[in-house]
Design brief:
Keywords: Signal. With about 110 residues, the chain is α+β, with helices and mostly antiparallel strands. It is built from 1 helix and 8 strands. Strands 3-2-6-5-8-7 form a 6-stranded mixed beta sheet, with no helix packed on it. Strands 1-4 form a two-stranded antiparallel ribbon. The N and C termini lie far apart (about 55 Å).
Length: about 110
């Protein structure tokens, strides 16, 4: 019984200590409350180490959200397939699996 209790406690502690890294930025200065402002957030092959965010366990992917007004948001995602694209309010949101994978501009999404 003690062995089961120890195993459960270790599982809880390990799951609390895990994190997931994605780039977290926007090139929209009006949304700097939501993500770090970076005027280069809309760059293809984005990779600014100053805007890497550690997300708590439970997240399993990253996303790049390209808005119809040209602004870009990069952040984390959960429950989406690698390469999945979602059209949203005239923009596109593309998802990827893998830490720091949200470097692109949804080039693989259909137009």
């Amino acid at each position: 019984m003690k062995l089961i209790l120890i195993a459960v406690l270790l599982t809880v502690l390990i799951s609390q200590g895990t994190s997931y890294q994605c780039y977290h930025c926007t090139n929209n200065p009006l949304l700097s409350w939501m993500a770090d402002y970076d005027p280069n957030c809309d760059s293809p092959d984005y990779s600014n180490p100053d805007h890497i965010q550690d997300w708590p366990g439970g997240y399993d992917g990253c996303d790049t959200d390209i808005r119809s007004d040209g602004y870009v948001y990069r952040g984390t995602a959960h429950g989406h397939a690698d390469g999945e694209c979602v059209e949203e309010d005239g923009g596109i949101d593309c998802f990827c699996i893998g830490e720091l994978c949200n470097t692109n501009m949804c080039e693989d999404c259909p137009p």
